[in-house]
Every structure is written in C-alpha cells, then in structure tokens.
Write a structure and sequence with these properties.
The chain has 158 residues and is an alpha+beta fold. The chain has 2 domains: 2-76, Ubiquitin-like (UB roll); 85-148, [2Fe-2S]-binding domain (DNA polymerase, domain 1, Orthogonal Bundle). Helices cover 34% and strands 15% of the residues. It is built from 6 helices and 5 strands. It has helices spanning 22-29, 63-66, 85-92, 102-115, 121-128, 138-148, and strands at 2-7, 10-15, 48-51, 54-57, 70-72. The protein has a 5-stranded mixed beta sheet with strand order 2-1-5-3-4, with helices on both faces. A hairpin with a 2-residue loop joins strand 3 (48-51) and strand 4. The relative contact order is 0.15. Bound molecules: FE2/S2 (inorganic) cluster (FES) (2 copies). One FE2/S2 (inorganic) cluster binds at residues 37-40, 42-47, 57, 59. Residues 37-40, 42-47, 57, 59 line the site of one FE2/S2 (inorganic) cluster.
C-alpha cells in the first residue's frame, strides 16, 4: 500500500506494508543511509533518528506508527561541507572510529541539545546511555556533546 511520510521536511509517498520498520524505508526506499542497522532489536541505537524531535529507534518503529509526525535523519542536520555545530564537534573531538554508531549518536545527542541547550554531564550521560559504541569512543562522544553545548571538555580524556 502507499503511505505518506515526511522526512527532513520533504513529503514522500512510499509503497510499503504498515508494519515495515521505518529504518528499512529510510535506507531502502529513500536511500538515506545514515541510520544504520545494528541489532534490529532496539538495543544498540545505530538506527536512531528523530520523530517530532524525539530520538527513537527506527528499527523497531513500524511505518504505521509514524503517521503525520516528522522524521529527521542525519542527512537533515548538515552535510560534509556544511556540518552543524554538533557534527563539527564530533569531527573536532574525533568521536568516531569505524563510524557505524555515529549517525545514531548524533541524532540522539541533537535531540537532547534541542530540548536542553546546555545539559549538564549527568544529563548527557543519562540521555546517551541507550546508544552503544562497540569501538569504545564513548568518552570522545561525551566530549563532543559538551563541546557542542559550549561546556568545558577539560578533564574528560579520550
Ligand atoms: S539497530 Fe535499532 S537499536 Fe540496534
Ligand atoms: S565508532 Fe565504531 S561503533 Fe562507534
């Protein structure tokens, strides 16, 4: 069946079953490959995108649950040439190794910064705990979020 979906400010009509995971539609139909398939079970965060500004796991979010809400993916934040502040902070702090978790990390962190522009460290840690990095760059990611929030990064070694 055909279903309408709003992604990064643009309306799309996709031909998919209502129970199709949003992640599959983003990657397979819309060719937005930033969000990654990790566990497929809502346990790693690699697939994180935003739904009306809230970070969600797109691997366990059926298309039918999206409705008229607005989907935002890493492609809607910025590009290699025009990174937003958080993407720039990730680059500056070299907060990636293989990069598989990065889009999900950034989308989850951006949701926090949009709601609370200057969160404290405890808020950042709590908010980010659902997303895993198998390369162990969590401290660099913490530094990047602190940097993007304009908070001191000293004392947080990579
Ligand atoms: S792929 Fe969605 S949480 Fe792991
Ligand atoms: S940088 Fe490799 S999983 Fe995070």
């Amino acid at each position: 069946m055909t279903i309408r979906i709003n992604v990064n400010g643009a309306e799309h009509v996709v031909d998919a079953e209502p129970d199709t995971p949003l992640l599959y539609v983003l990657r397979g139909d819309l060719r937005l490959n930033g969000a990654k398939y990790g566990c497929g079970l809502g346990q790693c965060g690699a697939c994180t995108v935003q739904l009306d500004g809230k970070a969600i796991f797109s691997c366990v979010t059926p298309l039918a649950a999206v409705g008229t809400r607005k989907v935002r993916t890493i492609e809607g934040l910025g590009s290699v040439d025009r990174m937003n502040a958080l993407q720039s902070a990730f680059a500056a702090e070299q907060a990636a190794q293989c990069g598989y978790c990065s889009a999900g990390m950034i989308m989850r962190a951006q949701a926090l910064l949009d709601a609370i522009p200057q969160p404290d460290e405890a808020q950042i840690r709590r908010h980010m705990q659902t997303n895993l990095c198998r390369c162990g760059t969590h401290m660099r990611i913490l530094r990047a979020v602190l940097r993007a929030a304009g908070l001191p990064v000293d004392g947080h070694s990579a």
